[in-house]
Write a structure and sequence with these properties.
This protein is mainly β. It folds into two domains: about 10-135, no CATH class; about 150-185, no CATH class. It has helices spanning about 125-135, 175-185, and strands at about 10, 20-25, 30-40, 55-60, 70-80, 90-105, 115, 120-125. The chain has a five-stranded mixed beta sheet. It has a three-stranded antiparallel beta sheet with strand order 1-2-8.
């Protein structure tokens, strides 16, 4: 595949965020493919655990009506902490991007999921950042069958077994235990 590497301009506006702008008039083709790699700091995502460079591979489809479609994939790796056992682990973050940008014209109704563009320059920063944030898991698990920590001694149950036992029952559920034992008799 041939990608246009000069399509995206990266310019720094402050110490946390680089703006990624596409000059829509800079290409004549109706479909233009491009890819770009950048650091998590350029989108202010280093605190979200993203440790590897972010890779964007996409295509822009420019319609005769002026509408612009952006379709592709953005991916990176995040260093996360498991919510159950508190161990660090790496997870690949991959998110598909499908965006529609429409030129702002008076009297036109904006369709749901369509973003208005009023200039010849398309700023992708916000959309890329949001896509990566949506790609992060809501519950960080090192594995689906993570056993977590022992409630009494704090031992990582994925690594070792503890001698605490599971006889301690929540006092609110003690009556249910008594009912269960009566039913078993």
């Amino acid at each position: 595949m041939n990608y246009n590497k000069n399509l995206i301009k990266v310019s720094s506006t402050n110490k946390f965020l680089s703006i990624m702008k596409i000059e829509l008039s800079s290409f004549d083709d109706k479909i233009t493919k491009f890819e770009k790699t950048f650091q998590p700091e350029s989108l202010g995502l280093e605190e979200e655990g993203l440790v590897n460079p972010i890779h964007l591979q996409a295509k822009i489809i420019k319609e005769e009506t002026g509408r612009v479609w952006l379709a592709g994939e953005i991916k990176s790796k995040a260093k996360l902490k498991c919510d159950r056992c508190l161990e660090n682990f790496n997870k690949e973050i991959k998110k598909e991007i499908r965006l529609l940008f429409d030129p702002k014209e008076e009297g036109n109704k904006q369709e749901q999921g369509t973003f208005i563009i009023s200039e010849d320059t398309l700023d992708l920063t916000k959309y890329l950042r949001d896509s990566l944030l949506l790609g992060l898991p809501s519950k960080n698990l090192c594995s689906p069958d993570c056993k977590g920590l022992c409630e009494q001694c704090g031992a990582n149950l994925n690594i070792t077994t503890c001698q605490c036992g599971s006889d301690n029952i929540d006092p609110r559920l003690e009556k249910l235990k008594k009912i269960k034992s009566k039913m078993e008799e």
